[in-house]
Write a sequence for this structure.
């Protein structure tokens, strides 16, 4: 779909000189830009007054709104795939496992701080969601989680056992089982797995090949390191069994912490202003230069 706009012109010598240099250095790129000049090209969809709003070939107001759930539409927009309702319900359910209203959680603290200084709920929620896009936790870790279990599954198909897969990783990390999707820094185990297993059975899902391997890897880790699988490992394996790529999973869960951030914002917004986690000067462990007189 193409949307046209009247192009703007810049007649400055510097602009023309820059364009000339760029053309000489990369004419193919300039040709591509010229073809798109003043036009917005969308491969996803758009709104056509009098005709409808479209997403990946579906008429949203006729085929999606009221006919499909919000999470079916969310997944469609993120991946281009219109999945069946049971799978969308599973993906929705796990959102509830990933967004807790606990202000001690890093991204939720941002929401709580935003509430105590009276920002808008939109600012609080979006900033908190952005803070969760971390290599340590949050949606970004799903890239590594999915890539790991899919790579491990390929190795397993080629004859490697779960023991050998774990050994290869621990040998590369000086005996440490650093695997995204396994081990939990604060607590042993992950109570959310049992809940999502129950949800999966209720929705009619059976254990797939990636999930089976994920549990075999967990068994090895439990025996050797007393560490188990966490929710990242489980959902990475489950969604791999459903045919999603790592990038698709990352996109589907881009705002997975948003609800918990909003809850923490509302909590502190309804309390006295500037009262969340106040500190006195003597609460700080200052280790800098000693107090000294300031010359007049």
């Amino acid at each position: 779909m193409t949307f046209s706009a009247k192009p703007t012109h810049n007649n400055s010598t510097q602009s023309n000189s820059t364009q000339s240099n760029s053309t000489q250095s990369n004419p193919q790129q300039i040709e591509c830009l010229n073809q798109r000049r003043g036009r917005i090209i969308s491969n996803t969809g758009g709104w056509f007054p009098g005709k409808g709003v479209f997403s990946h070939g579906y008429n949203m107001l006729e085929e999606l709104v009221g006919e499909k759930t919000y999470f079916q539409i969310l997944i469609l927009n993120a991946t281009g795939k219109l999945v069946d309702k049971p799978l969308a319900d599973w993906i929705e359910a796990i959102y509830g496992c990933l967004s807790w209203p606990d202000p001690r959680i890093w991204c939720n603290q941002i929401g709580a701080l935003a509430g105590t200084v009276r920002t808008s709920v939109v600012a609080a929620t979006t900033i908190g969601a952005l803070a969760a896009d971390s290599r340590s936790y949050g949606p970004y870790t799903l890239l590594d989680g999915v890539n790991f279990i899919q790579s491990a599954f390929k190795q397993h198909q080629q004859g490697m056992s779960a023991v050998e897969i774990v050994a290869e990783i621990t040998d590369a990390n000086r005996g440490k089982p650093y695997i995204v999707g396994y081990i939990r820094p604060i607590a042993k185990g992950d109570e959310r797995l049992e809940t999502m297993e129950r949800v999966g059975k209720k929705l009619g899902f059976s254990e797939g090949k990636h999930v089976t391997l994920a549990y075999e890897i967990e068994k090895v880790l439990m025996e050797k390191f007393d560490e188990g699988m966490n929710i990242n490992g489980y959902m990475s394996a489950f969604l791999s069994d459903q045919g999603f790529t790592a990038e698709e999973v990352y996109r589907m869960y881009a705002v997975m912490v948003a609800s918990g951030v909003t809850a923490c914002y509302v909590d502190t917004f309804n309390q006295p202003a500037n009262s969340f986690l106040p500190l006195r000067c003597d609460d700080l462990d200052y280790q800098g230069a000693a107090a000294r007189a300031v010359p007049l």
